Amino acid sequence: xxxxxxxxxxxxxxxxxxxxxxxxxxxxxxxxxxxxxxxxxxxxxxxxxxxxxxxxxxxxxxxxxxxxxxxxxxxxxxxxxxxxxxxxxxxxxxxxxxxxxxxxxxxxxxxxxxxxxxxxxxxxxxxxxxxxxxxxxxxxxxxxxxxxxxxxxxxxxxxxxxxxxxxxxxxxxxxxxxxxxxxxxxxxxxxxxxxxxxxxxxxxxxxxxxxxxxxxxxxxxxxxxxxxxxxxxxxxxxxxxxxxxxxxxxxxxxxxxxxxxxxxxxxxxx
Length: 270
What we know:
31% of the residues lie in helices and 29% in strands. It is of the alpha/beta class. α1 packs across α3 and α9 (196-208) packs across α10 (226-239).
């Protein structure tokens, strides 16, 4: 059975686990190796049981724990070629470099019982991607760190069972908040992050095409709250006569803790 769990999800660090039988894939490693190991332990998975690590891009909130964790656990790391090169340019660790398995954006790979397929995302990184992961008749799509929703993103999201959807910020909070002007422009730009409203539109599209569960992710520590993100998406779903308490499962991923475990049979708290 396919399951998905966030280990952390926010502007300060991101990591998640997708499992199906004996296949376990870590999505990003943006928290410390110690926290990754502890989060896996909560889910009954030991680091050496990982089948692979998939990276979305090389920003620190997605790779900060990669070097220490993979030096201890020699597991294949899949990322786009530019992402691999940019990580190595910043870290210069040959031991970890040897674990990288470069792929092209849009490529798919079989990892144990799971099929993982990347898709390009518009973000200010070397060559960022989202991931669509399928196994045993179910499919999870991780879609964060993008400035706007492209046709390619929509094709990847369409009909998935679970959408992990970015709702990074409240636009008014960013504009009136403490960030310097250049950072506000980055966040709000086409290579930045999805706002609550933009994430709500993506979630609505997914639900219209058959998605039954949505996890809101990558919330800003400064410019958002879980309640604000949830309410924005709830309003959009209600506008299409969809009750997030009845018709779909709508949840917000915790920023700094292991989240609930999702499976096609429903959500349970681990």
